[in-house]
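Record pair follows.
FIRST:
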Amino acid sequence: MSSTLLEVTRSKHEEVERFERLIVKDLQNEPASNRERLFQNHRVRNMIEAITSSTEKLIEIYEDNDNARKDEIAALGGQTATGTNVFSAFYDRLKEIRDYHRRHPNSCALDVYEEAEELLKEEPHVEFSGEEGHGRYLDLHELYNEYINSKFAERNEKTKEPIEYSAYLDVFSQPHKISCKLKLSRQYRDYLEHLLEYLIYLFQRKEPLQDLDRVFSKVETEFEDLWEDGKIQGWESKGGNISSQDSKIDLDYYSTVHELMDVGTDKLKEALAALGLKSGGTLQQRAERLFLTKHTPLEQLDKKHFVKGLRNIAQNGAAVASQEMELKEIALKESKMKRLCEMLNETIEQTKENVQKKQALTVDEREKELEEEEEQVDTESDDDEQQIYNPLKLPMGWDGKPIPYWLYKLHGLGQEFKCEICGTHSYWGRRAFERHFKEWRHQHGMRCLGIPNTKNFNEITSIQEAKALWERIQARQGVNKWRPDLEEEYEDKEGPDMKLACRYCQANYVFFFNLQLLYKVLVCQGLK
């Protein structure tokens, strides 16, 4: 039944349309966790690949290079070698259909909708190591071992020992810090290739919907322009002194040997050496030897002009070109690696935090954390996958469901209060706003302003208002301090006990650090 090309064409079109609808339906569901998001992306990726495969098959059918589709359409119209017989073609096809159902009496149509629902619940198998945590972290331990056992590895300035894994996570994405001469080694090329392969493999598993070919195509286009301008970081001179391009002199600007002599001895010597020519002799002899290359190809020059051991410059030029191609290839791989690191920047930062966290844990704590992560994964997989209906975006309650709307209005959670002292942080609801004055964020902000966090500053959220109030409080407290113009301090006959004399009420009070007596004097002054 499905062996004809027309039936295959119809089924492929139906398959493409069904997968498109499934992709839209799957992407409308918001993943509840990183694991669910990963599975969703891989499901969509698999469906896109299925659409691509079906489309390629359809293109092949429509091109009809063997005229099979054309012949089948002609047969449906009853065209035969003897003429056209529509009824004969119709009954032949009817007989074929009846024979098929007679041979397969129990065959039934597939339930496309049931199959689609099962496809949306599928959890594709994505292989991650234990350190990668479903794509949340990098696992660079093998590359780290390869790095510290190389000559180009960064070492501690004091101990001269290789850097630790946590420090390696900071430097592996900075190849420009490595010397260009060390990059020519086979060891570095292998390390760079392994690093690039791992990052590509991780990115394809973590972000299956991203088109890496398009990203790398853009990187290559930008790289060509920057390479020609010498603006690639770490390769500003196209490999430093390794390449001889900077030593060449453009002879089109010189019409005579005497003009070329103005370049100088050193420049001429470098240019001759870069071409494999002898660099000895006087200034004029060097200029004449170099000027010969303006109108005569290097291959046609007399062998006496070349350095002994280089029979023809073509070999030397090929070696230089080959070396430059190697340098360019290394620089291009570094550019691709840097772009991948930029796209995986969040993952790299999470890896650093995870490594630092593990270093502070004991063996028992690490094992307990692994058990908790496994339990969390099992819980996420067993959770109800239905989407919670929350059009008003109400806060979630203790049961993981939106709180009632009347409770939302009762607590005034729709009102927003901003506190400039807390860094313009927002607090929703009057209760949360009043409570935040005693929390660490507000206390820290007041401490930064140099103001004590007392009850006097409740309801104050502006920095300017807080400073103004603090100045008024300080000025008011200045009245209660000891003032030489109104008060005096002296000793009595009984000894060195201090007395406070109030000039307004002419009363003396012995000061034994008695707060009640001191308060009486201050009240007296304030009332006066």
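SECOND:
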Amino acid sequence: MEGGYQDTRWEGYVDWRNKPALRGKHGGMLAASFALVVEGLENLAYLANASNLVLYLSKYMHLSPSKSANNVTNFMGTAFLLALLGGFLSDAFFTTYHIYLISALIEFLGLIILTIQSRTPSLKPPTCDPSTTPSMPCQEIDGGKAAMLFIGLYLVALGVGGIKGSLPTHGAEQFDENTPQGRKQRSTFFNYFVFCLSFGALIAVTFVVWVEDNKGWEWGFAISTIAILVSIPIFFFGSSFYRNKIPSGSPLTTICKVLVAAMLNGCMSRNSSNAIANLSASPFYEPETNKEPEENAKQTDEIPTQSLKFLNRAVVNKPAHPALECTVNQVEGVKIVLKILPIFACTIVLNCCLAQLSTFSVEQAASMDTKLGSLKIPPASLPVFPVVFIMILAPVYDHLIIPFARRVTNTEMGITHLQRIGIGLFLSIISMAVAALVEIKRKRVATDSGLLDSTAPLPITFFWIALQYLFLGSADLFTLAGLLEFFFTEAPASMRSLATSLSWASLAMGYYLSSVIVSIVNNVTGNSGHSPWLSGYTINRYHLDRFYWLMCVLSALNFLHYLFWAMRYKYRSAGAGASK
């Protein structure tokens, strides 16, 4: 009887009441579907404000275009960087289930603060119109009003980070990775995770942005607040179906312990009875990610592999200190983390390009003719083009492209994670080149029309900007879904949430790098006796075309850097290169 009970349990997993998770009752696509719905609502709440925030800060908080752009990139960068905190807490101390609920409540609180401020005139700077009184600049938000604004924004950022760091992993952990069907379902989950993320974005950049521009920002914030509030009970309704991975302690502690042990043991004199590092690699070593916890425990007597063999010094019979005793699994896990870091680094420049979708591209569109017949389209709704394309491409990719690729390559995956990421990086090069060409055309129209110093709309349709959005959106689909699945499948089981959070951390680094590049470009170009590229009374005086060419060159160099690492990477997860 007891043996039968053991066979029905998911080892290393519990249900929401902290009882053993059972096969057939917990996990599966039904459980993961709750995470998909919740992600749509959460991304609606987040992106509805982030996509239009640059205009809110400049129009209502009276910040300059450059300050507004930098504040938006810093806010979005912080939100995604905090995903590392959410992933770390999910792996170390709490389950992904609890981290999501806590983070959603924090985001809800931040949105309430922003809603109150947006509907209360006394909590905002005085209204003004620079076109009627050009000699008197508008008063920027400051003091307690600025404190309220940024407290609300960064509470939202903290909540978003926790959700991004826990929700993808929570959904992916519902599948049995030891079976081909489970791995295929997990791949489908990541594709539809991006689909649902885009669906939430579609509503955000159309309906909610229209509400913000025509009915008031207090209504836009209110819709976001309701969306995140509704997502909490929906997630909670799936509680009886979830299997939640038991936290296994701090992954950062393990990483630090292995690195310190390797250094200290390497400095000590070692004899043959104390060293394992010089032994040949075991051909039978299997990656930790393909095993359930009880199977992983049996691997501690294995011999470490010879890749990054300097870390093998951490595995000795007599370590420098008892606290630095390491198992082979711990050492191999750290090796995996070090191997995926270069892939992570290569995606930062792409996300620096994506940062332009929320900053300069929105300001470009705002200077153009945004009418579609008798309907005036808000500039912040421009991301609807890549979003719709992603929503079309995601199911096509999962149901047509991948099955075809599997038949052609006779492999379980069809298209590998790294191939998918590489396609996204290549598309980012094209998108920046297109952005530069479109900006050249926009500036030519402004010059020919004598509107360089005017805030009046230019006689050129904003659909030209949609071209760069289309390529960048496609790049985002390939790269984000590929990164999420790559980090989840390749990382050690004890570090999956943290590793998956690297996908969002890459976005954060991209947004921060965008701010740094803007500052460096302005400083360098301003010191040459000319006006800075990204400065001027209006965006028509900016030299955005040169900036986009610079980003195109950086993207091309980054793609070559990526190829160097991707061609040398060897998959460790099951199904990555296996034949069907």
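COMMENT: The chain has three domains: 10-128+142-247, 249-271+305-326, 335-572.
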